[in-house]
Write a structure and sequence with these properties.
mainly alpha, Pur-cyt_permease, two-stranded parallel ribbon, disordered C terminus, membrane, two-stranded antiparallel sheet, transmembrane, 514 residues, single chain
């Protein structure tokens, strides 16, 4: 790893050498919290009000979704210290050395979605604030310039890599938090915690679908980090206590109550004083926020948009470039980051100026999370059954274009994990219910409530453990202590063969971790 923030990081997804793994759980907290302590999270926090909930109902939905999402996310931080590589590469142990591309694909979609949300919301806030303060015209050219400059800054930070990204997030965590707290004074006179919303009582047939839908949108934020958490925790030493690593990931998400509640509270003010910005056909939280904000708070809003958006964009794009270079090994991490960054910027411009994606943001994010959550269950349960033991060399077989190893299974595919993911994600999509956007064939079975995520999570847990019990994995994939909760078969493990295209700095013999 580079010794200075101004040196470009050269590590890809090969195992990080022990001498370079100097990060702490606090650094993981900073990156995870900094990536979510942003304007984009405020936009997600406004959805309970958009869905018609009162402030207190919206707060309950937010806390429910955030705690559930943080609990689901926390175990995903353990793979980085254990294996010194990304979570997608670590998934080779449970989906096979070829099946790990599922994680890379999910990471790519998630990154594009949240990178786009970040650039759109931050760019709109910057242009809107500049218009109110300096009279800058709100034209297509102005918005395009803001998006281009902002996305370019994100790309530069990602190219420099982990150390520079960590520096940005150290600043972002403190600065954005202080500006959000300042916002409490800016809107205190207009905020009414008794905001009643659109539902006279919880007996309204639309209340529970709105409540569950709000909680799921909040939950999507922590779950969106699942594929990326190992990108940052891989720099944490393997001997670090697991509870500290998981605690850092969990607390980072709980801390995002700050931007979530900011979005929720200000949305209730917008709904009361500037209701035209919450037109169901084209809601505009950013425009409404600028309309109700006092003049002295325009500059802090612009700073939140710049600092927070930069933090979110870098955490999303960095992991995608890392994953892409692990699938297409002819690209270095820097080349892959530039390629994905340019494509994402193109997607942002198409979506902003040629398509109407206001409602589609929540749809796209919900569908991605619905597919990602079962994958996370496979990973977490796989970690438990393996007792946290992995073979770092066997994890790198795909990246080195070799064959065999502990995680080769059937021609590089572990059908147990793959079948669990495919079936669970597919069934969950059938139960999706996003009125006016996407409703699955079974979406109305729960009186209009979207139960896709709970269905996917429960089905994945039951199905994966059942398949491991009925069709045991080879004893060679488990460590010296053997499997936990399941049995192992006596099937032989093929040795690794072929000349590696690159030699990762990994120990010659795998050792228990933790």
């Amino acid at each position: 790893m580079a010794t200075s923030v101004t040196e470009i990081e050269t590590h890809g997804v090969e195992q990080i050498p022990d001498e370079d793994r100097t990060a702490r759980p606090l650094d993981l907290f900073r990156l995870a919290f900094g990536g979510a302590n942003t304007f984009a999270t405020c936009v997600l926090g406004s959805f309970p009000i958009l869905f018609g909930l009162s402030f207190w109902q919206g707060l309950a939905a937010t806390v429910l979704g955030l705690v559930a999402g943080a609990l689901l996310l926390a175990p995903m931080a353990l793979f980085g210290p254990a294996n010194g590589t990304s979570n997608s590469v670590s998934s080779s142990a449970h989906l096979g050395v070829h099946g790990r591309v599922v994680g890379s694909f999910l990471a790519l979609l998630t990154a594009v979605a949240f990178f786009s949300i970040s650039v759109w919301s931050s760019g709109d806030a910057l242009v809107g604030g500049a218009h109110r303060m300096l009279g800058v015209p709100e034209s297509t050219l102005t918005y395009a310039a803001a998006y281009a400059v902002f996305a370019g800054l994100v790309l530069v930070v990602c190219i420099y890599g982990f150390r520079f990204m960590l520096l940005v997030n150290k600043i972002a965590v403190v600065a954005a938090s202080a500006l959000f707290v300042l916002g409490a004074f800016a809107f205190a006179g207009d905020f009414d915690p008794g905001y009643a919303g659109a539902f006279a009582s919880t007996a309204d047939p639309l209340f529970w679908p709105s409540f569950i839908g709000s909680a799921l949108i909040v939950l999507s934020n922590p779950v969106s980090f699942g594929a990326f958490l190992g990108d940052w925790s891989r720099y944490i030493p393997a001997a670090t206590p697991r509870r500290r690593v998981m605690g850092a990931a969990f607390l980072a998400q709980i801390a995002t109550l700050l931007p979530f509640v900011f979005g929720l509270a200000t949305a209730s003010v917008i709904a009361t004083q500037a209701g035209k910005y919450f037109d169901p056909a084209a809601p505009n939280y950013v425009g409404g926020l600028l309309a109700i904000a006092p003049g002295w708070y325009f500059l802090p809003l612009c700073l939140i948009a710049l600092i927070g958006g930069l933090s979110t964009g870098t955490t999303a794009l960095y992991g995608t470039g890392l994953d892409f270079c692990s699938v297409f090994t002819r690209f270095s991490r820097v080349q892959a980051t530039v390629l994905i960054g340019v494509l994402s910027i193109g997607f942002i411009f198409v979506g902003r100026f040629w398509l109407n994606l206001t409602q589609s943001i929540s749809t796209f994010a919900t569908l991605i999370i619905t597919c990602t959550a079962p994958w996370m269950i496979v990973m977490a349960l796989g970690y438990v059954t393996r007792r946290g033991w992995y073979d770092p060399e066997a994890l790198q077989v795909f990246n080195q274009r070799r064959t065999g190893g502990r995680y080769w299974f059937s021609h590089g595919w572990n059908w147990r994990g793959l079948a669990t993911w495919l079936v669970s994600a597919g069934v969950a999509l059938l139960f999706t219910n996003l009125p006016g956007q996407f409703v699955g064939p079974l979406g109305n079975l729960a009186d209009g409530m979207d139960i896709s995520l709970p269905v996917g999570l429960v089905l994945a847990a039951v199905l994966y453990l059942a398949l491991l019990a009925l069709f045991p994995e080879p004893r060679g994939v488990y460590g010296p202590a053997g499997p936990r909760l399941v049995k192992a078969s006596d099937t032989e493990v093929l040795p690794i063969s072929g000349d590696p295209q690159e030699t990762p700095e990994a120990p010659a013999e795998p050792a228990p971790v933790g």
